[in-house]
Amino acid sequence: MSIIASADSSFRSFRSATASVVATLLLLWVSASVACGTQPKAHTDLLLSFQGSVAGAKYIPGPGEHGAGALSVTGAQLEVPGQLTVGGPSSGLAWPVTNLGSAGIGQRMLAEIVVSPGILEQGGTLIDVAGAVRLDVVDAGRVRVVAGTTSREFALPGRTGPERRPVHLGLVTQLDDSGYGVVTVLSEAGRIGEPMDVTGATESQSAISFARGATGSVYGAAVTTGGGGQRFVLGQLPCAPMTTSVVYRVSVTPGECEASILAKASALRPSPQQSRWQERELTAFIHFGVNTYTGLEWGTGDEDPAIFQPTGLDTDQWARVLRDSGFRTAILTVKHHDGFVLYPSRYTTHGVQSSSWAGGGGDVLRSFVDSARRYGLRVGVYLSPADENQFLVGDYANGSVASQRTIPTLTGDDDRDPRGTPTYTLAATDYGTYFLDQLYEVLTEYGPIDEVWLDGAQGRIPADSIENYDYASYFALIRALAPQAAIAISGPDVRWVGNESGVARLDEWSPLAVKYVGPDVPEPQPSLQAASLGSDDDLVRAVEAGASHLVWLPAETDVSLRPGWFWHDEEAAKSVSDLLKIYYESVGRNSTLLLNIPPNPEGRFADADVARLQEWRAALRQDMPADLAVGASAVVAGKPAPEAVDGDLRSAVAVEGDGSGSIEVDLGEPAQVDRVSLSEATAAGGQQVGSFAVDVWSDGGWRQIGSGGTIGHKRIIAMDEPVRASRYRVRITAARAEVSFAGVSLYGHSAESVPAQTDYYVDCSAQTPGTGTMTSPMRSIEALRSVDLPVGATVHVRSGTRCSGSLELWGYGTQDRPARLVAWGDGPEPVLVGAGNTAALRALDYQGWIVEGVSVVDGAGSAPR
Ligand code: FUL
């Protein structure tokens, strides 16, 4: 039975007309009826913007919605208000046609839908009027109307490339009781093409359905009967972002609307491991192993261990040079792809113990960690999952299936006390077990490890072999044994910047859209190399394309001082200007810098490399001598904002994120500035800034002297021309949310060399923060966290004061030049109280510090990271 029984007799005359005549008449009819006021009154019989809820297969309308009858929902979920997520062939919404009254679909009717643009890429039927008229997706730029024996494609205007705006489409049907009539397609841009003449459209189902067989988000659906039918009821429905609490990772759904995605990105925060890692900024890579002696970059796994013969291993030199150059962490290649291990592992003979070096008793890792701790350097380990030697042994990529293993595997002559050795049951292949056993050794016998660097390479094994890394087990063991460590590259905490030339993106975001390619192995979307990774556009497109989560995933920029990662006699170090560029394009762009310095076959950094690092450090001091902004007057929204100029990147001031926020700094007197460093307190406030501008006050007005995109942990911009002014302003011109602004630093290049400041004064009762000179003391102990103290520096704390905050001093002393923490001025012993302070004191003692007349105690204060 057909329900087509139109009461609109004026309409029948169109039937025999040609399409163009039909179109003209239709338009005339519409305008005439509007003009004469004869048009029947329109009724919006269905009006949904998905503010309601879903119970089983029934949609329960929310406030302001109208959904008479049992509106059924199949294969669809309402995860976010305002957005129904549909997925797959049998999904969709169906609304009974009986709700249209006796005229049924044989009356003028507008059926409309608003969907996420990704739906167009997936196909499906967007609107189906009782089986009589269908609006099908053809592709991202076209839809097709199928009605009776007629069908026609319509190109969607303005949708030729990737698109983020929701798609709003409507079908105006005007059919008579024999299924003849006209169908018009509307998009948000207006009518598309000419109205289509329809013959033989027959009702074959008793519902109007929406988004059938589609995958993505539906933001609204409506049916309006009577009236002109040319005007949309739904408009471009607003997207209602979910209120998201602060998280490290959040799931997203394909088709999720932009506001919701960006709200989630804005709610992301780094984990404590990531914050600690980011604050350290400069990490050294040390590629050392059998390749140092063979001249290869990738070893073969069958090297004779005897070739490993450092004639003068000097890990103290490594650590000293690295600290003197400002590095805070160093990562040693404990095992590169060849599989040769730099410590005596119980599980292989391909390692230092098989070399005659040091009589077979050498342990480079031990020596390295001892030196690192002596000079106050954090330790990272590079343990290559790829292992050519284990391939030759027959364990790596041997096809074994992961099964539950007890780690560590105790060996026959194991020297570990089984009772004092915690064990872990983890799923692993044969090789996975080997790798876990080595991780266990390294993470339990060499003190705290702060970064575990896992490369994703498979090594040069035959193309048909593969080792499926047991990442879930690796990560579980690392988290259990080294909870403070950041797991980098093939891991959840740190991502590769995407190149090995030392350059981060101009605008580097840490909140990214990802897919998981293994448990906790995020793969940034659209790709690690994408030019605008993490931007608003990329996030939205990545979610459309199927990214499953947004996650905090900051960039590490790795590059070598020399062309190769390992030592090669014939190679030379990069120039100072290359290194400066690398610094500004990594640390200055919200990334950490991982700079490789390869020891020579002797086991030392070459003198020329050491000299180059020192020149680089000196050049950075000349570029960025004392921060002129510290202690200046700073104002945000009319209120003093000392947090922005206190040299402590954890303290922050809230700045409006709606484009109106700014930070004004008045130095009191003109100073020359050519470099500006900005920071967001990402641990507290995430990463929000999308664009900013820097102005100076000159000739009675503000003049823009620089601008940029993201800020994140640190963004350093250089002015084209140095400026001389006393008032500076940073405008936050776009942000995802309110900004936790940590600091602005202003620097003027010095033509002369700038000696490192050796004495720092701290007065926690001072009115204003200072640079640390006696006349301008620092106001908190936390401001010293950002300072790399030269050997033998002295920190003077004002007597009679009490400083709260964790003690974190980046400096060391030697026998001849001890570093000192002493009281300054008259009065009772100053007190430093903060979380982890006594442990910090013990470490300082080991690093050659003398503490005199200062009481260091544990307490609240900001937690150590
Ligand atoms: C790469 C490795 O294959 C290189 O040999 C080097 O270790 C570099 C840092 O990572 O993926």
What can you see in these coordinates?
- The chain has 865 residues and is of the alpha+beta class.
- It has four domains: 9-225, Sandwich (Jelly Rolls); 273-314 and 322-496, Glycosidases (TIM Barrel); 624-752, Jelly Rolls (Sandwich), CATH 2.60.120.260; 756-865, no CATH class.
- It has 15 helices and 47 strands.
- The strands form nine sheets. Strands 1, 4, 6, 7, 9, 14, 15, 16 and 18 form a nine-stranded antiparallel beta sheet that branches. Strands 26-25-22-21-20-32-31-27 form an eight-stranded parallel beta sheet. Strands 33, 34, 35, 36, 37, 38, 39 and 40 form an eight-stranded antiparallel beta sheet that branches.
- Strand 11 and strand 12 (142-147) form a beta hairpin.
- Helix 12 packs across helix 13.
- It is globular, with a radius of gyration of 34 Å.
- The N and C termini lie far apart (74 Å).
- Mean pLDDT is 90; it is low at 1-37.
- The chain binds beta-L-fucopyranose (FUL).
- Residues 637-734 form the F5/8 type C domain.
- This is alpha-L-fucosidase.
- Residues 306-615 form the Glycoside hydrolase family 29 N-terminal domain.
- Pfam families: Alpha_L_fucos (PF01120), F5_F8_type_C (PF00754).
- It comes from Mycobacterium hippophais.
